Amino acid sequence: MTQHQAVKSDNAPAPIGPYSQGIRVGNMVFCSGQTALNPQTGQIDESDWSVGQQTRRVMNNLKAVLEAAGTDLAHVVKTTVFLAHISDFSEMNGIYAEFFPPDQTPPARSTVEVGRLPKDGLVEIECIAVMSDTIAQ
After folding, report:
1. Is 40 helix (H, G, I), strand (E, B) or coil?
2. How many Å apart are CA 125 and CA 15, to the nearest integer?
3. Which long-range contacts (CB under 8 A, 24 or more apart) does 4-7 make?
4. Are 91 and 123 in contact (CB under 8 A)?
5. What angle do CA 76, 24, 43 make, to 5 degrees?
């Protein structure tokens, strides 16, 4: 039986349902979708109302979960991006590229438009990463 371990970070929003921020199984880390919730308040701040600002907050939330698991954004191998409006793709993509530069082998990605996101957010991103010592340099 494969053992799995919950990942928890106080620097990312607490789950708003029966799920873990992340799960570590062997050398893999599966991060639940992160929205632009402020980790301290559990709300989307007024200052985070653009999709670009929300994407930045989402990526920082993911980064915190990954760090709690013992890895980082450089070891993400797959992301899924959920957008409330596909017309926001370009703005989201510009901020996303700051965290996953195209010249540094960004992860595989899927992007879809959804009907609605928790707390009426504009973007949610989930990811799968490997532990930092499992990728050949």
Report:
1. coil
2. 14
3. 7/31, 7/65, 7/68, 7/69
4. no
5. 75
Tell me, which fold does domain 4-134 have in CATH? 60s Ribosomal Protein L30; Chain: A; (3.30.1330)
How far is CA 92 from each of CA 24, 40, 45, 70, 110, rounded to the nearest angstrom?
A: 27, 23, 17, 26, 13
SS3 124: strand
Domain boundaries, the chain: 4-134
Q: Is the pTM of this model over 0.85?
A: yes
The rounded Cα 54 to chain-centroid distance in angstroms is 11
- Tell me how far apart the alpha carbons of residues 64 and 62 are, in angstroms, rounded to a whole number: 5
Q: Cα–Cα distance between 23 and 93 in angstroms, integer?
A: 26
Separation of alpha carbons 106 and 100, rounded Å: 5
Q: Cβ distance 76 to 107 under 8 Å?
A: yes
Tokens 């402020």 sit on residue: 38
Q: pLDDT tens, 114-130? A: 999 999 999 999 999 99
